[in-house]
Structures are given as structure tokens and as C-alpha cells.
What does this fold into?
Amino acid sequence: MKLYYSPGVCSLAPHIALREAGLAFDLERVDTDKKLTASGRDYLAINPHGYVPALEIEPGFHLTEGPAMLQYIADKAPESGLAPRAGSVERYRLQSWLNYITSEIHKGFSPLFKPGMPAEAKTMFKAQIAGHFDYLQGYLSRQAYLLESGFSIADAYLFVVSGWSGFVGIDLNKWPAIVAFRERVQDRASVQEAMRAEGLLK
It folds into this structure.
């Protein structure tokens, strides 16, 4: 397998999952502005949308959406416990969290990184994210991870997107349970290895 990534963006979540699962994989960095991979390939030929991540399962076959990619990785290493058993109620709870993170939180951050976005609009998007963080504050005050069974691919995804807060002027210290959650996740060896490989940690 090969993961196409850019440092610190949403591709960090499957990167963490791959390391957590103990799967063999290669990394290739993508310049998302130029749409070129580090080896000089046209990235649009890999992912026509032009964004990361993309996971090459086999030559010519790629997954291009993070939540699907995360579930594929978890299913390749069921012994890792990164996802509950397929068909179980807990598996659907995991899918619910993945959908919530991608549609409500991840996409809520996206407009905040656009230079031309009016300040009034950014204030609105920040308020929406704050509402989601209020909910997560209560939830993570009661348990360490999003699933009762422990760390999962959903936690990797939430760790990555919540980490963008400081870049857009959202102070996470307002939500101490989220701060504590992030500390727990970052303490994991797989997370530190992934962040170090992307140049996010020394």
C-alpha cells in the first residue's frame, strides 16, 4: 500500500491508523498546490479531486475518501481493535462518529483556511465548531475515547481535525476534556511516529 499525504492535514489520520494497525506501507508526499507527487507524478491522475489523502491499495486502484480509507485499514488488521466487528451495533456507532467528524467538524474547518472568506462568515463557522466542541467536551468528560471499547480510527480522525484549532484562532483550552483527549492520543507511539515522519515532531 502507498499513502499519498501532505503534512498535518487530514491524511495524518490514515497515516496514524496504518502505523497503529502495523501494516506495511509506503509514503509519498503531495504538493497539493502544484498537484504533483514527490516523485513527479501528476496527482490528478491518482485522485481527480486533487486533495489528499489517497491510498493505493494495488497498482491502479486507489481509495480517496478518509472515512472509507480508515475503515479499510482497520479491517485489514482486525486484531488491532481499531474498529468493532462488521455488522455489530458498535461498528455502526463508529460509522456514526466518522460521519459526524467528516461532515460537521472537518468540513466546518475548511472555510476558515480560505484567505478570501469574509470575517463575518468565519465568525459563524467558528461558532458552529464551538457548538460541536461543547458536545464533545461533555462526551469526553465521561470516557477516554469515542467508543467504550477504547482507541479507534474515529479517535485518530478527531485528533487530527481538532488539532487545526490553533491555526484558525480557536482556543481549545475552553474544552479541557478535548485537550486531555488530545494528550492521550498524542502519547500513543503510532501517533508520534506518524507526526515525526511528517515533520510535525522532532
